[in-house]
Amino acid sequence: MVYHKNAEANLTPRFRNSRIGDKVNLYGYSFISAMPVSSSGENLINTSLANSWNKVACVVVAANAGVVKGMSVGAVCNASDDTLAGVIVGYSSRIDNNQSGKTLYRDVALYVPLP
């Protein structure tokens, strides 16, 4: 049996919102291999996610870090201080500008930022 005493101050996670351009680390599990996976990237843009599950568009952050099937609901941490920044919700093949219709980004990870 292994026992490790944790200081109470270190038990609760710290939260911090990321900003555009901040480096982030994404953590989750691969659906294919069931092994833990991670990737790194930076925040590109705040956008909205509108689908059949959301009645109102949900605010998400697009990041250029890679994601694979199964990483949804994984943690997104700020690379600078390891604080929790959000929860992975998936992937988007493209993000378009609502006014011009031009594609701004392709193949990006999406996560819901913490309030």
Architecture blueprint of SSEs:
Elements: E1 23-29, E2 36-49, E3 58-63, E4 75-78, E5 84-96, E6 103-113
Antiparallel strand pairs: 1-2, 1-4, 2-3, 3-6, 4-5, 5-6
Please, could you describe this protein's structure?
The protein is 0% helix and 48% strand. The protein is mostly beta strands and 115 residues long. It has a six-stranded antiparallel barrel. It is globular and about 55 Å long. The termini are far apart. The model has no long low-confidence stretch (mean pLDDT 88).
Helix percent reads under 10%
Q: Number of helical runs?
A: 0
Weakly predicted, low-confidence segments: none
Please identify the structural class as seen in this structure: mainly beta
Number of E-type strands: 6
Spell out the key features of this protein.
single chain; mainly beta; 115 residues; 6 strands; 6-stranded antiparallel barrel
Compact description:
By secondary structure, this protein is mostly beta strands. Helix content is 0%, strand content 48%.
